[in-house]
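Section 3.1: Structural characterization of target chains.
Under the original work plan, the team committed to producing a structural model for every single-chain target entering the pipeline before any wet-lab resources were allocated. The record below documents one such target. The sequence was received from the expression subgroup and is listed exactly as submitted; it comprises 174 residues.
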Amino acid sequence: MHYRSLILLTTILIFASCSKTSDEEYYNLASKEYKKGNKDEAYKNLEYLVEDYPESSLAADAYFLMADILQNKTTDSTANFENYKKAVGIYAKVQYDYPNSEKAPQALFMAGFISSEFLKDYQLAAQHYKRFMKIYPDNELSYSVKEELNNLGKTPEEILASKGIETKPEVTAK
């Protein structure tokens, strides 16, 4: 009887180890949850993918989507700030670890954009944007990157004024 239990347990362990979730399955699960609005569940599946399959052809896309989820997660202001910081790190990771990925240029742009617009870390934003221009000077986003670099830290009014566009003072209702 003990021998049969041992055989059964061994068989179960063998089947369990053989049924490891594939990178595609993780990505498909994450996409499905993302579309249903279950962003936390999607994030978990993407985390599993990049932990279990860091060399997967889906890893860059998984990281990109993880950063997108963090960037768009709405919580209290302190948590938002931390999510933005994490998103910047993950976007930068896409470019550094997967430089040949289709997502790499957009990820680097997003790292700069979030650093500037949400974290107000203009020095970090400039680093990301300058790296972008060095690596992807002919990318479709390069014009936007140049504009971002030229306008780092400026208010919308200052940007319009630098282009010779006058702004009218707001009229407040009484």
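Residues 22-162 form a domain with the Serine Threonine Protein Phosphatase 5, Tetratricopeptide repeat fold (CATH 1.25.40.10).
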